């Protein structure tokens, strides 16, 4: 397995000894229209650092995959500071979110042009510091099938992934359209084990989850704790069904903290909700520590590095 690219340099998979968060935001800006709270900026950086440092000490948090990409207010300089000051390695991302958040550069640009933009960023780095992204995501669509601009952005993500060896994490709005995303990405030559289909815990359909896993993709239960979208009770039921079907090796878990109101200091569930609230319920339902380690540590490593299931321990 190759090293994991983090904002502070390469990290060997063996160095990830504790759990990872597979889909988070530490610095982003999704404010638009009447929604002014979808932001994590320099006013919140110290709070983010504090949460991650506490989780490293208490829970052994060893990695955060940060999926803010182009057009999402990505700030790799902030990510580097957060990583250094908290002591938690952070993976930065590239790609384009779903259509309402596409920057003008997507416009009517062709797939080749978009691919070149991503490959250049992956090989040369982001910003003046040249920080290298370690994943492509969260590349998005909304609805059961991607829109025309989303198709171009997804195809570019897949081609850039094939060219550079990075994996792709998607945004499937409210969990919908995952099968279409997977079909589109694999049609461009990207193996399914290099793909994670996002927000599946928002879709109350265990059959879809099994189909994605059976086709070899990772299935993200990555909005844990966002009770206004879905109850954790439903998430728990869906996850237990997927585990019972033998697909724990295809699960990624996270909380998708995407606004400052979710931070613990503002009364929110915080980045640690997965570990402090949800995993105890999973254990109480009979899931053993080896499977929890699989879903929270080994699977994220395998996803990022492209390792086959039997290659990462």
TrEMBL record:
<keyword id="KW-0378">Hydrolase</keyword>
<dbReference type="Pfam" id="PF02126">
    <property type="entry name" value="PTE"/>
</dbReference>
<keyword id="KW-0479">Metal-binding</keyword>
<protein>
    <submittedName>
        <fullName>Phosphotriesterase</fullName>
    </submittedName>
</protein>
<dbReference type="InterPro" id="IPR001559">
    <property type="entry name" value="Phosphotriesterase"/>
</dbReference>
<comment type="similarity">
    <text>Belongs to the metallo-dependent hydrolases superfamily. Phosphotriesterase family.</text>
</comment>
<dbReference type="InterPro" id="IPR032466">
    <property type="entry name" value="Metal_Hydrolase"/>
</dbReference>
């Amino acid at each position: 397995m190759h090293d994991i690219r983090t904002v502070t340099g390469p990290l060997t998979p063996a160095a990830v000894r504790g759990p990872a968060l597979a889909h988070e935001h530490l610095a982003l800006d999704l404010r638009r229209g009447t929604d002014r709270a979808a932001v994590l900026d320099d006013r919140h950086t110290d709070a983010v650092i504090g949460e991650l440092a506490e989780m490293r000490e208490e829970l052994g948090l060893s990695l955060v995959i940060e999926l803010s990409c182009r057009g999402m207010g990505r700030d790799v300089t902030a990510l580097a500071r957060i990583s250094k000051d908290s002591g938690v390695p952070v993976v930065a991302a590239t790609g384009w979110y779903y259509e309402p958040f596409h920057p003008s550069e997507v416009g009517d640009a062709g797939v080749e042009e978009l691919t070149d933009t991503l490959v250049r960023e992956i090989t040369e780095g982001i910003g003046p510091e040249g920080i290298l992204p370690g994943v492509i995501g969260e590349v998005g669509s909304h609805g059961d099938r991607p829109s025309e601009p989303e198709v171009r952005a997804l195809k570019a993500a897949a081609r850039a992934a094939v060219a550079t060896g990075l994996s792709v994490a998607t945004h499937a709005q409210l969990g919908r359209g995952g099968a279409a995303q997977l079909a589109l990405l694999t049609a461009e030559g990207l193996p399914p084990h290099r793909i994670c289909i996002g927000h599946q815990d928002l879709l109350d359909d265990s059959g879809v989850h099994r189909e994605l896993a059976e086709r070899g993709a990772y299935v993200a239960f990555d909005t844990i704790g966002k009770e206004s979208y879905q109850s954790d009770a439903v998430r728990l039921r869906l996850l237990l069904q997927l585990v019972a079907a033998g697909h724990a090796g295809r699960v990624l878990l996270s909380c998708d903290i995407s606004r400052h109101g979710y931070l613990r200091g503002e009364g929110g569930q915080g980045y640690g909700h997965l570990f402090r609230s949800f995993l105890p319920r999973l254990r109480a339902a009979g899931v053993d520590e080896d499977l929890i380690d699989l879903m929270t540590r080994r699977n994220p490593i395998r996803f990022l590095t492209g390792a086959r299931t039997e290659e990462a321990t």
